[in-house]
Amino acid sequence: MDFFKVVANRHAIRGFDRRPVEEEKLRAILEAANAAPSAGNRQAYDIYVVTDVRKRSALCRAAGAQGFVLTAPVCLVFCASPFRNEDKYGSRGRNLYSVQDATIACCFAMLAAVAQGLATVWTGAFDPDEVREVIGAPEDSTPVAILPVGYGAAEPEPRDRRPLEDLVHRV
Length: 171
What we know:
The chain has 171 residues and is α+β, with helices and mostly antiparallel strands. The chain has helices spanning 3-9, 23-34, 53-62, 68-71, 83-115, 128-135, 164-167; strands at residues 45-50, 74-80, 119-120, 142-150. It has a single domain (3-153), classed as NADH Oxidase (3-Layer(aba) Sandwich). The model has no long low-confidence stretch (mean pLDDT 94).
């Protein structure tokens, strides 16, 4: 799919049908995330693949009972790993670059999913301690986003975006 079509077709989908995500599509999504740029190529993030329904149910509870976290057949949890950047970049690497790395990787995963006809919804509202416990991440790991992935159950209505004249500032 053309890149600009991928971007135009990316919508927050909160309804998923029961079809599983094929392993080759999931692998392509993870490879795209792995190809994302990162500070100093340190890749200061980890990705947790959650397919087990009990774990997705626990993630759903940690995300304030947002049902799509449970109904998507796959949830990818992106966690910042601050220790991977701290030695080179100090507090900025620990507190900012690692979060940016995880965020960029999640965006690449999201676009890769859309390019393969899958749906996603960025999920940032959750209790990070509960998420960390559900996925078994270490204490120094910071959950940044949950990305439910699956086949969309419905097409979304297009939403208005801010006009570029309001959004872009030339200096």
